[in-house]
Amino acid sequence: MHNFELIDLLCVIDACASDRLAGRLVPMSKAVEELRVLTGDFVSSDADAANALTQVALQRGCAVLLDEQAGADIVG
């Protein structure tokens, strides 16, 4: 499991959280992609990134949408 920097996780959650009537919502597919771009880490698994981001999002009072990117299950 990869250890991500807390400041990177916080920045991504704040950037990806959208305000809704029910509270702040963070779509994980977008957050994982943003974390990869911010850190340049394209090696860590999506699950490790999503787990780290989910923990931070929940601590920040955000709801988490565990969505998938379209085509993620397609093997080329």
Summarize the structure.
The protein is an alpha+beta fold and 76 residues long. It has 3 helices and 3 strands, in the order H-E-E-H-H-E.
Instruction: Give me the side-by-side strand order of the main sheet.
Output: 1-2-3
Radius of gyration: 12 Å
* End-to-end distance: 26 Å
Order of helices and strands: HEEHHE
Shape descriptor reads: globular
Number of helices: 3
β-sheet strand percentage:
5-15%
* Mean pLDDT score: 87
Query: How many domain modules?
Result: 1
Helix-strand makeup class: alpha+beta
List the uncertain runs: none
The percent of residues in helical segments reads: 40-55%
Major pleated sheet: 3 strands, mixed
Strand elements, count: 3
What labels describe this entry?
alpha+beta; three-stranded mixed sheet; 3 helices
Can you give a write-up of this model?
This protein has three helices and three strands, in the order αββααβ. A hairpin with a 2-residue loop joins strand 1 and strand 2 (23-27). The chain has one domain. The mean pLDDT is 87. It has a three-stranded mixed beta sheet with strand order 1-2-3. It is of the alpha+beta class and 76 residues long. The relative contact order is 0.24.
Topology, element by element:
Layout: H1 6-16, E1 18-20, E2 23-27, H2 28-39, H3 46-59, E3 63-65
Parallel strand pairs: 2-3
Antiparallel strand pairs: 1-2
